[in-house]
Specification:
By secondary structure, the protein is of the alpha/beta class. It is about 50% helix and about 5% strand. It has a domain of about 200 residues.
Amino acid sequence: MMTIRLCTPKCFVILLGITSLVLIARTNLYKESFGSDDGRSCKPEPLLDSIARVNGMFDDLKTFVMFIGYSQSVESHTGAILDAHPQIVIPQEYDVLGNWKMYQDKKLRDRGKQTHMLFFFLYYLSTFQAIFRNHANKPSQFWVWTSKVENAQHYPLSDSWQGTTNGKIKVIGDTSSGSTTRQLTMSQKNFTVLEDIQSVIGIPLKFLHIVTNPYDVIASNVIRESRSTVNINDAKDVFALVETNAELKKLYGDAVLDISMDQFINNPRETMIQICRFLQVTFYNSYLDKVKGELNKESTGARYQVIWTDEEKEWVAAEMKKYSFLNSFDF
């Protein structure tokens, strides 16, 4: 006999969300209709006023931040920590660079709504991920998110500002570090896309470069492919990304901040203060106390879990000497 599934997990999530919204709406309507008469009218707010109120959330924005890097978990984890700040909105793995084409719609551009649409989607996605956490990996029912990242890990911080703000958003952005760097590596035309993004958003574009030991990056990629032995092409692939990030640093200068993973783990409070200053947001003591131990959960020993030849180790060591931001690392 054929069994009919009445509710898939995805449907359940959607229905749960709709039910919650309906219950909230019904509760508010009940209070308005049957509560004490305090003189307020139940007349709906004009649509234009509602739109202005939503757009007003972004009036104080000072910085658009993009992550560049090497598709390591520490990059997403750092983004989650920043999203927990009351003045910052950074969802996981939206891929602004890869999705930028949809903001080139002529009607959207002619109406000057590109920025509002981008900012609203990023804010929405941050909230969605904070609510559903790892169940929000790929909400394909929402066309807004077309990230190619599979099984993205989300890092919930309890009792924090993840998914919301204190009403004064200063920074908004995207954590798609590996995707951004790889797209820039694959096509120089994407550097022009960055220029277009900068032109459209109308606020400074900054980059966070989370620098991980190249030996660990190479090893992580090998492990991700269920292999145990490194080959020279694995190393060359990673250093192609390194070269792209170095090129980006030359182009954008002080708008790129290098943050060593080891630095973050060993001195989390000082590093977070450095990032907050770079992004021009307040570094609240309560926030710093909450996040200072988060990155201790990150592992830095992937290089010991795979097999290297001496030649491969030496090749990587020689390449590392070409880049000042890699000087602190060794095998």
